[in-house]
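Quick review question:
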């Protein structure tokens, strides 16, 4: 029968052994279900003449490499299925309910083009929120994703790059976990595929796929976890620490919050192992300490300047607003399927998560019960107990400062004790559920491996029960195509470069309404030109009132004209303005060095907006599909 890991063995030892190649299968080896090393028959053993002829042929057809390719193809098809409705029209469609994050990411992708082609400073820009600018290191500018995507962005535009990143993020995360699991934790391809599938297509990942490619691009995480475990028994800890440092540095330019989660999860997991087997510490501490020290030195050197800009550079902020810090999961969310799944529904999940892009704990009743059953079944295995402890701890932290059940507050959560600590003050607590998702995925992989490794007498029944349990648990949360809505096209005035006749290098084009958290169309306009013009306002994180070092908030300094036009766009009511309001609005336009104001004729409540702007700066004129107000004579400070 296939070799089964000793349940009493340390997961540190087991994983390190596999990493070192002691038990890993060759790349093109036959499936695990082939003849066993002890001569006992297995499902793939030839027990008669026909079987003897069929088995070798089957092994030749289904090599490890072909198995891997089949699994990767499945993951890619699933990711294309999830994003299929956006692929139908990347520029004209966006995930429903909220479209600001995709516009922000597209802006950052266009910034990557400027970094590569024009040598622009990568960590700060004044192309939006002019003249204060935006600290990009403090805003997840996805440089590690955007720079490789520059050819796609140049050829097809940032909207295509965005949906491609979402697709590759889902498929790549699942594939990376499958690769690491199949080489270093389990031998059964199905076990690795199940674990990789849930890591890449859990309800939490599907939820973030609506708007957050930086969060779902977790394809480096399994390799980071793998290298941390290697350090516990490394013979060359400095080399292995340096390899870990390179992975950490790359992940920092994808998403720092996910990197922090990975570090916390690894720490808690190793602590859970050592609490159960303290004797392991004597062999693990020295290489781990040396390796982590080497990692810290090298990664610290590589990230020192970017982190300096993030925490002490222009427009740096310290901590998030209280609203975001209070984002927590409802306990009932753990028993409901996510909105983007087969059994999910947006209305049923109302008030169970902060919003539909943060459904980080929606596993459904069946999977939750299955996870508990796996822990009970395999409770003697140290690996399972450590994974369970890690998953439960972060599930509790994900509840936030106030623990609730069906939107009814019950008591204060433990997160309240941690929220003020450095680094944790910038964490969104609901996202700790992402760690729980990975813990469940690994439990599923281990359970399938154990079921597929039982003696022949028990194997068929247990495998049938395991397969039925997986179907019952995973089918309700199977991924569905993301729901989409149409968004207004970028005006022809922008795409035809008619704006270039008005806007100079140190001037701004002011979209109407002024870009903000709730209105990011102007950011998409700039992104389609690869940020060839500057805009005021936008959607980003910045210190309150533009004072570097203050707590963060969404948006820059409060803008009187911006708030005025946003109110008109929302209500459709044209206010009557007095001379004082006109003078203050002109002062803001001068501060922005505005060259033109641009209002699409198809903008919602376009007529009330046009009348309001005319009260501020006089009559405009129609040009192609927009109204244009040339205000250079009013805002030129040298005039």
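Suggested answer, residue by residue:
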């Amino acid at each position: 029968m296939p070799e089964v890991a000793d349940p009493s063995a340390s997961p540190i030892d087991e994983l390190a052994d596999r990493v070192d190649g002691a038990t890993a299968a060759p790349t093109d080896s036959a499936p695990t279900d082939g003849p066993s090393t002890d001569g006992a028959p297995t499902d793939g053993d030839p027990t008669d003449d026909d079987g003897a002829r069929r088995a070798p042929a089957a092994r030749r057809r289904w090599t490890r490499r072909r198995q891997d390719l089949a699994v990767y193809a499945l993951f890619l098809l699933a990711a294309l299925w999830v994003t299929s409705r956006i692929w139908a029209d990347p520029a004209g469609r966006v995930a429903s309910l909220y479209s600001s994050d995709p516009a922000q990411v597209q802006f950052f992708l266009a910034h990557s083009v400027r970094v590569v082609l024009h040598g622009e400073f990568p960590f700060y820009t004044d192309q939006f929120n002019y003249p204060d600018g935006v600290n990009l290191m403090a805003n997840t500018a996805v440089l590690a994703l955007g720079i490789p995507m520059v050819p796609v962005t140049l050829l097809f535009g940032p909207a295509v790059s965005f949906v491609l990143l979402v697709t590759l993020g889902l498929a790549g995360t699942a594939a990376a976990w499958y690769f690491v699991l199949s080489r270093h934790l389990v031998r059964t391809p199905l076990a690795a595929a199940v674990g990789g599938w849930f890591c890449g297509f859990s309800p939490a990942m599907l939820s973030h796929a609506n708007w957050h490619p930086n969060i779902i691009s977790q394809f480096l995480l399994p390799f980071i976890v793998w290298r941390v475990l290697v350090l516990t028994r490394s013979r060359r800890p400095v080399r292995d620490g340096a390899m870990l440092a390179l992975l950490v540095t790359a992940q920092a330019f994808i998403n720092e919050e996910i990197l922090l989660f990975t570090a916390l999860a690894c720490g808690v997991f190793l602590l859970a192992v050592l609490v159960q087997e303290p004797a392991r510490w004597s062999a693990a501490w020295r290489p781990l300490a040396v390796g982590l020290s080497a990692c810290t030195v090298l990664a610290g050197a590589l990230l020192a300047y970017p982190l300096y800009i993030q925490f002490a550079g222009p427009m740096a902020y310290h901590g998030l607003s209280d609203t975001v810090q209070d984002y927590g999961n409802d306990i009932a969310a753990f028993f409901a399927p996510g909105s983007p799944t087969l059994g999910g529904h947006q209305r049923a999940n109302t008030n169970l998560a902060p919003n539909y892009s943060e459904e980080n704990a929606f596993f459904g009743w069946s999977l939750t019960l299955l996870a508990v059953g796996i822990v009970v079944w395999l409770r003697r295995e140290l690996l399972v107990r450590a994974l369970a402890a890690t998953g439960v701890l972060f599930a509790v932290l994900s509840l936030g400062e106030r623990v609730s059940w069906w939107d009814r507050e019950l008591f204060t959560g433990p997160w309240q004790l941690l929220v003020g600590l450095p680094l944790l003050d910038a964490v969104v607590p609901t996202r700790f559920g992402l760690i729980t998702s990975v813990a469940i995925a690994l439990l599923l992989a281990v359970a399938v491996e154990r079921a597929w490794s039982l003696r022949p007498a028990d194997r068929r029944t247990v495998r049938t029960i395991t397969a039925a349990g997986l179907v019952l648990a995973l089918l309700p949360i199977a991924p569905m195509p993301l729901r989409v809505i149409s968004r207004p096209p970028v005006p022809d005035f922008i795409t035809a470069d008619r704006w270039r006749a008005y806007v100079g290098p140190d001037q701004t084009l002011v979209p109407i309404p002024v870009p903000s958290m709730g209105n990011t169309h102007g950011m998409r306009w700039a992104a389609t030109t690869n940020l060839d013009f500057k805009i005021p306002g936008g959607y980003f994180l910045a210190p309150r009132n533009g004072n570097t070092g203050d707590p963060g908030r969404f948006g820059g300094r409060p803008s009187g004209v911006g708030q005025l036009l946003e109110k008109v766009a929302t209500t459709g009511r044209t206010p009557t303005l007095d001379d004082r309001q006109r003078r203050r609005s002109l002062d803001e336009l001068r501060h922005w060095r505005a060259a033109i104001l641009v209002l699409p004729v198809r903008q919602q409540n376009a007529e009330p907006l046009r009348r309001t702007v005319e009260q501020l700066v006089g009559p405009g004129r129609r040009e192609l599909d927009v109204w244009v107000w040339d205000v250079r004579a009013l805002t030129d400070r040298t005039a």
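Why it works: The first strand starts at residue 93 and ends at 95. The first helix runs from residue 11 to 19.
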